[in-house]
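Record YgjP-like metallopeptidase domain-containing protein, 234 aa.
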Amino acid sequence: MRGSVAYANQRIDYSARHSSRKTLAITVHPDGGVEIVAPAGIGQQVIEKRLIRRASWVLQQRRYFEQFLPRTPARRYVGGETHLYLGKQYRLKIERATEDCVRLKGGYFLISVAGVPSPDRVSGLLASWYRERADRKLKERFEAITARFGRIVGRRPDLSIRPMKRRWGSHSAKGRITLNRDLVRAPLPCVDYVIVHELVHRRHPHHGRAFFDLLAQMMPDWEKRKSALERLLA
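=>
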């Protein structure tokens, strides 16, 4: 479902979907998009009435994200281009070889390509390398943090790691936490922030005062980490 509302001489476009959750949630993404998840049976009129009530906050969030523009240009996967891993920049160094291989050495991604080192081939090899590292590194951080805060958040939830277009993480109605595989490009303190943020949702589904009070208790510098994440991976 898509629609728009008018507020303070501005138009707020949104996308909405229904789920098994009991309450309505509004999310503003870094690209300015507004996503609404509503309980089953909630009609569009009610959704838009709630959005208008939160419109001032929505516009504030959009202004916050605008400070990080312009965003990183599309990657070309050519020699000399820089790519992030755990918050550090590494330059691509591409060579032809007898077998495919991706290694980190010094300040470089050394990418050996069996055959013609086209941007598509380099992109595919680097994506596979990131996927393997993300699945391992994000799981390690998740296990360490859930062990640390188990007394507060209870039983360790199930974890899923996959590509996500507009979120760094999510917490489902069934208690599963999903992390964006791209987080492996961010510094570990930023990764930890996303994990803690989603863990807090186990106690407080919404971004109300109780949510932020617990988040600050578990991670007092969460705002600094959040800002660093958005600046680096914009």
